[in-house]
Structures are given as C-alpha cells and as structure tokens.
Write a structure and sequence with these properties.
By secondary structure, the chain is α/β, with parallel strands linked by helices. The chain has 18 helices and seven strands. It has two domains: about 80 residues; about 240 residues. The strands form two sheets. The protein has a five-stranded mixed sheet with strand order 5-4-3-6-7, with helices on both faces. A two-stranded antiparallel ribbon has the order 1-2.
Length: about 400
Amino acid sequence: MKKEKQTSRADELIDELLQDCPDPESILGESGLLQQLSKRLIERALQGELTHHLNQDQETGQQNSRNGYSQKTIQSTHGAMDIRIPRDRNSEFEPVLVPKGQRRIQGLDEKILTLYSRGMSTRDIQTQMQELYGVDISPGLVSEVTAAVMEEVKEWQHRPLERIYPIVWLDGLRIRVREEGRVKIHVLYLVLGVKESGHKEILGMWLSSGGEGAKFWLSVLNEIHHRGVEKICIACVDGLNGFPEAIEAVYPEARVQLCIVHLIRNSLRFVSWKDRKAVTADLKPIYQATTVQQAESALTSFAERWDGTYPSISQLWLNHWENIIPLFDYPPEIRRVIYTTNAIEAVNRSLRKVLKTKGMFPNADAALKLLYLGLKNLTKRWTVPIPHWKRALSYFAIDNPEYFLH
C-alpha cells in the first residue's frame, strides 16, 4: 500500500510539471523541462555531496563550512547547462558527479563513442550531437574522447584468455592506412574462438602491412599461448600462407581445417560459365561424404570426369587433402561449424559496414580504435552458444579427456 501511495504521488508531481508544457519542444527542447530537471537534480546531488564532505570534516574535528558557489557550464545529453557548484571554506571539496576540470557530464562520452563506432567522421558526430541533443562539441573534443579508447584497446589485446578453445577461425580484411606520407594497404587479422561454454569470443586483432607468412602467424600464436591458451582442437582457415606450419610449432596436436567454401571458389576460378553448375555438383559428393574413404572415391570419380578439361581442380584438392579430411572425424553438427569460415566472415561483414565510410585511416591507431569499437558493438549480441554445441563438445571431450573431463 505504501508503494502504491508513493507511485500515485510521483504521478501527481509529473502531472503538475507537465501542466505548463503545451508541446514537445517545451519538454524536450533546449531549456525545456527535461533540461531544467536535469540541472536541478545535478545541483541537488552536488549539495548532497558537499553535505557528506562537511559531515566527515565534523567527525574528524576539522573546522569547515559552506562558502557560496562557482558557476560552470557543462555539456550533457540534454544540451549545455549552467550549473552552480557549491564550495567549502577550506577549498577541499572535490565533486564526484562533476569533477574539477571536467566539462562533460557522464553519458556524453558514451554517445560520442557510439556514433564513432558506426564509422561516422568527427564532423558528422559534431553535427549529429547538435541535431539530436543540442550539444555543441568541437572536433577536438571528439578526438579527445576517442583517443582514450586506445588504452582500452591495449588492455583488451593483452587480457588473459581461457585455457582451451575447441574451435578457432582465422581471417583478415584489407584496410587503407596512411604511413610515411603514403597510403598503404594493411590487413587486419582476427582470431575468433569458441569457448568451452560454446560462446564465441574474439581473441585478438593484429594489423600487418606485409605479406603474412609462417613468421607472422608464429608471433600471433605465441602471443595467444602466452595469454593462457593451452589447447586448440581445430583451427579453421581459408588458406592463409604459413599458418599450418606455425600452428604445428605452437599447438602440435591441433588440426587445421581448410575452408571448403574457399576451396570450391578457387576450384571454379578457371571453369567456364557453362560448366560451373556441373562442376559444383560433382564436387559436392567429396565434402559431403560420410567417411574419408567415400571422399577419396568421390574425388577419384571427379578426376575421371573432369581432368581432361580442368586438370588443376583435382590436383588442388589433392594438394590440400590433409587439411580437408579432419572434418570427416566429426558428426554433422560439428562439420557444419568447421567446414567453412562463415563465422569469422560474418564478423568481417559487420566491420566492413563500419569501414565503408572510411576511404583510408590517417594512422594505424585510428584504424584499431574504430575496429575495436565495431567489435565491441557486435559481440554484445553473442549471448547464446552456437547450435548443437553440447553434442559437439562431447566429441572434443573424448579426443581430449585431459582438458575436458576434469
């Protein structure tokens, strides 16, 4: 009953406040009701902070008292506000809500970062903040807010990882970065893993300006290992140069699974348009076979039919056969997950939406900041395990009892 009375009283107060607000502008506009209430709430909160500070001084025997106010203009999501900051006679009071030297109320930085993570330019963010919130911010302020992200990126990139990731995917996307006065093509490499719980996690991102090879991947995998990853069961790749050698050096028991979709695309590169449908249909029995023996038989049949016209296709599959057949050791639930790099390509597609407004980046840090924020937005949606994970995990546990059966 008491709670109902409090709710009723609150509704009455709101009705009273709205009586003098005939239109949306008088509520939401500049100097509207919402801004006035925010201003009053901030000032009341600051008064409460000073009261607490003075009470503490009194308990310790210090002589202190209120000493008027100072004026301060702050930027908030409700626009610019002129507020009165209470002062104490000893000049020891440090407000928590609006610290000394701070000109932005909490929440404004988050909105700037949200717009930045969508790929908006500094000028676009400036315009958007003015149109949406009536807040005038400078390009320098946007740069100041986003610069603080770099520390977060460094902490994230060096954070501890889990002991085991049954499945990891590796892939990269190209971006343009200005370096030494010239615009160069860089590749951002991502490592996506599935945790023992079945949830996806980005293990890290690495920016490279040269052609990747065994040495590059060895450094990446060593970094992951030093951050706590003891075991990788399957690594799914699209044919990255040097990766099989690197993973064998760091995780010798891991199996490398080549992306079948990429292999099919490479197989069709030199196939005439009229034969593509037939070639694709004849490749399907290879990777959809139940066993390795059936897959080998299907590849032999394919070669007998097509080697006279396209001899390079069967040779391509034979050259990569050791990295094609790992999928046959697992049931359909796991095969659907590992035989393509769709999981990490979906991540890259999301990042490309962020990048489409950027012709090039002024430096590597600018690229890493934006891509990190884009990943942060994306991974918020990763709240459930991948499909059929419980059954898949039982197979990994049988192969690796020392890591799972504990």
